[in-house]
Amino acid sequence: MNIYAVIPAAGVGSRAGFSKNKLLQKLDGISVLRRTVSAFAQNAGISRIVVCVNGSERESVARELSGFDAALVAGGATRTASVKNALCYLAALPCPPDYVLIHDGARPFLSQKVIDDCIATVRQFGSAVCALPCTDTAVLAESGFIADTLERDKLFTLQTPQGFAFAPLYEAYGKISEDDAFTDDSGVYAKYVAPPRLFAGEKANVKLTFAEDFAMETYRTGIGADTHAFGEEKGFIVLGGVKIPSERGLVAHSDGDVLCHAVMDALLSAAGLADIGHHFPDTDPAYKGADSLALLARVYALLQERGLSVVNVSAAISAERPKLSPYIAQMKKNIADVLHVFEQFVGISAGTNEGLGYIGRGEGIAVLATALLKSA
Ligand code: MG
Questions:
Q1: In CATH, what number does 3-214 get?
Q2: How far, in Å, from the CA of 260 to the mean position of ligand 1?
Q3: Does the structure show a pLDDT above 80 at 17?
Q4: At 160, phi and psi to the nearest 5?
Q5: Are 222 and 275 a contacting pair, CB within 8 Å?
Q6: Which residue of 58, 141, 243, 367 lies most exposed, with the fewest beta carbons within 10 A?
Q7: Cα 46–48–54 angle (5° rounding)?
Q8: Nearest CA among 317, 319, 279, 286 for reference residue 301
Q9: What is the mean pLDDT of residues 236-252?
Q10: What was the pLDDT predicted at 15?
Q11: Paired residues of 132 in beta bridges
Q12: How many angstroms does the Cα of residue 227 sit away from the middle of ligand 1?
């Protein structure tokens, strides 16, 4: 069974107010088009993907879809023209598909269930149009007045994917005249083949249309851990940028601020970046005795470059000594200032290890930290 996905992606997105193709806009670092294509690439029922692109964007789309086995076909002036080009390309293949699923490039949140249901429905009925039942009252209006209230039970709004047996759809597209104005493929099939069959869509399967649709917030958590051993007599340790009296200092290439290090790793991990050892190697003399709050500020800059901000961080310090409670408020303030959050979004707890293990024997301090980041 040969089932192809066709994704028209040649629109410029003028309604969204972008100068370039809205499908190349990134959502949390991944373009809308890559997300959409990825959903079909993950589905075992789909044999191959065809993407309709503008000639001028061919290279950038190819780059955007690197790693996917997607054929790029020239788009047309309208969505209908783009789909027609794709169908002509498929018809000319040595083995044309049995079915095609046509899906708006601007609907990146479709689930695997929707694709599966589309395939099952089109195989049973020859057509499969993704639709949501109308939940609001719908009316017909004339000159600003209600002319008629419609029977809500019979009303649906259409989404994509829309699946069709390939041969009749291809034939239908060959019959389209210049007077025909279709907003999607179900209209073509309905006019020239038969009434298309509906299947249940999902609310999340929205079409990104306006600029604000692209400003979606997403969240990521991260975890970080660090341990430093006590070393020679020094008179203090540094935690969260606070100098705390301690007979012995912590062994480290930097200032040994084990709290900042764990927080930095939690932040980097949430952002999907390499850990602090990669960014600030302890073999680099530049970081000898480094102020870890300054390094934390550099991690914050890395997050900012990626459009990520900090929601909160939380850290648990395990230390048999020294007593930390008098210094926690200042640690919170220091870290909050660097991360540009209010102090209540930095949580720090400190406890002993009840005399157990290396921490209990007072050989070192360990910190576990988590972070939550927000994009957009
Ligand atoms: Mg460390």
A1: 3.90.550.10
A2: 8
A3: no
A4: -125, 160
A5: no
A6: 141
A7: 125
A8: 279
A9: 96
A10: 63
A11: 157
A12: 6
- Length reported for the chain: 376
Class (C level, CATH) for 218-375: alpha beta
If pLDDT is split at 50, 70 and 90, which confidence band does 161 have? very high
Domain ranges in the chain are 3-214, 218-375
When comparing pLDDT for 210 and 16, which is higher? 210
Residues near ion ligand 1 (CB < 5 Å) are: 226, 261
Distance 267 CA to ligand 1 centre (A): 14
- Please tell me the distance from the alpha carbon of residue 280 to that of residue 278, in angstroms, as a whole number: 6
Please name the helix (run of DSSP H) or strand (run of DSSP E) that holds residue 119, with its range, or none. Answer: helix 112-125
Question: Is residue 338's pLDDT more than 70?
Answer: yes
**What is the Å distance from ligand 1's center to 237 Cα?**
13
Distance, CA 325 to ligand 1 centroid (Å)?
21
CA distances from 328 to 122, 246, 257, 312, 316 (A): 62, 15, 14, 16, 11
Q: What own/partner pairs with CB < 8 Å and gap ≥ 24 does 209-213 have?
A: 209/15, 209/16, 209/106, 210/15, 210/16, 210/17, 211/16, 211/17, 211/18, 213/16
218-375 shares the fold of 3-214 = no
**Distance (Å) from CA 354 to ligand 1 centroid:** 23
* pTM over 0.90, yes/no: no
